[in-house]
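**Entry details**
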Amino acid sequence: MNRQRFADLIGMLCSVFNVESSNPMLDGYWLALKDIPAEGLERAVERSIKECRFMPKPAELRDYSGAVSTTDRALLAWAHVIDALRLVGTYESVDLGDPAAHEAVRAIGGWVWLGEQDTDQLERYESRRFIDAYRVVARRNPHPTLGVPLVGKYEHSNSASGYAVEPPVSRPAGYLDAPAPKQLERA
């Protein structure tokens, strides 16, 4: 979203709620909302005008925009990882379609290691570790391995022996289609 359109939308809110706009206020709202797509902010402004009695804070506008929080995205990613483990297994390499999920899986032990854990271990401990790792990855600058698919047993063995390697199984992450902050670009 460009800064002028953003200023127009916040200016509209200020006018409706009879709040004096200032450059520092616009700068603060910009810092908090610049990663929200224009359509999301327009939806948030419209909803605020219809439902709020007072000028909405940036956090309220984020909620109204439909943006998925990093924690919610991490929970969705964990469900996607578990689904891929069940459907693909760890013999095949997999592309989850979510670079942050790839990096979070690597951070907690890797694709093959994750598949070797029992269900109880996954539910009790590894889910929390994954969610924490995902949140960290989603907040930092992209890492060189971000977006590289997760390596399965076949690829690891074949590449070490000099044999051809099959492309990873693609498991697109449907939750990435939801409006969300643009902290990570898909690789």
Q: What stands out?
A: The radius of gyration is 21 Å. The CA atoms of residues 31 and 58 lie 9 Å apart. The chain has nine helices and two strands. Strands lie at 94-95, 169-170.
